[in-house]
Amino acid sequence: MASPRLSCESLTATIGDLCVVADLDLCFKAGQFWGVLGANGAGKTTLLRHLAGLLEPERGFVALNNEPLHQWPRRPLARMLGMLQQQTSYVFDATVLQVALTGRHPHLGRFERERAADLKRARSALADMGLLRIEARSVTALSGGEARRLAFAALQVQDTPVQLLDEPTNHLDFRHQVRLMSLVGEQVYGQQRLALAALHDVNLAATYCSHVLLLHEQGRWQAGTASELLQEEELERLYQCPITAVKTPHGTRFHPTFSESPD
């Protein structure tokens, strides 16, 4: 598997009249797990969609392994870069296994059918997400959490060196949040892949991410290691509310500082 490198050259991304990020010059490298943090409406999803080549930047460009994304043919790009979208819904009637197998499409020829190895990979991904026992169930009968886990499983079946994850823990309980984030971490740190995840939970970023990208207002941004930037002062500036850091045996955890309830 090729060692991934995703870079931004003077990237300016907008949505409507909102500047999400201005003049972003940054290189995301193999072995790094980036958390993208920002307030509601800061443009985390928009930025990820630019990094996936789904949106045209206002200025600058994104390159994968030094080649601008717009120069990549779609199928080779889909073998290198995959994205978990923020929302997961299935309106067509297919089984859980059939949807998981869609992750193999970039690796197959136009008229080529899945082979035994593809089925094995799909079932392994379903097992990782606790979905193997319902592989024959219609996706229209899934709960929100099951649908989310299936979308992530399909991304694992796609098997890309670069993963862009838009709020990956949406609809997931604690156990499945830990499982999903741990799997991504194992791939990033153990297999030298690259992941970027838009997150609302700062503590997930503190636990799993090596680096963070903070999206402030008016296109301003900060990037650095998680240990450098996940500090009370930086987070209070980002979220514009008081933040308390608590030392635990498992590292520092952050939570908003609540005012006392009235008697």
Describe, in plain words, how this protein is organized in 3D.
There is one protein chain. With 263 residues, the protein is α/β, with parallel strands linked by helices. The chain has one domain: Rossmann fold (3-Layer(aba) Sandwich), CATH 3.40.50. Helix content is 33%, strand content 28%. It has nine helices and twelve strands. The strands form three sheets. The chain has a six-stranded mixed β-sheet with strand order 6-7-8-3-9-10, sandwiched between helices. A four-stranded antiparallel β-sheet has the order 2-1-4-5, with helices on one face. Strands 11-12 form a two-stranded antiparallel ribbon. Strand 4 (59-64) and strand 5 (67-68) form a beta hairpin. Helix 4 packs across helix 5. The radius of gyration is 19 Å and the shape is globular. It starts with a strand and ends in a 7-residue tail after the last strand.
Coarse shape: globular
CATH topology (level 3) name: Rossmann fold
Give the beta-strand count: 12
Mean pLDDT: 94
**Which structural category do the helix and sheet elements fall into?**
alpha/beta
> At the first level of CATH, what is the class?
Alpha Beta
Distance between the termini: 61 Å
Number of domains: 1
**How are helices and strands ordered from N to C?**
EEEHEEHEHHHEHEHEEHHEE
Q: Within the largest sheet, what's the order of strands?
A: 6-7-8-3-9-10
Biggest sheet features: 6 strands, mixed
Number of alpha- plus pi-helical segments? 9
Helical percent range? 25-40%
Low-confidence stretches: none
Tell me the fraction of residues in β-strands, as a range: 25-35%
- The CATH architecture can be given as 3-Layer(aba) Sandwich
CATH superfamily: P-loop containing nucleotide triphosphate hydrolases
Rounded to an integer in angstroms, the radius of gyration calculated over CA atoms is: 19 Å
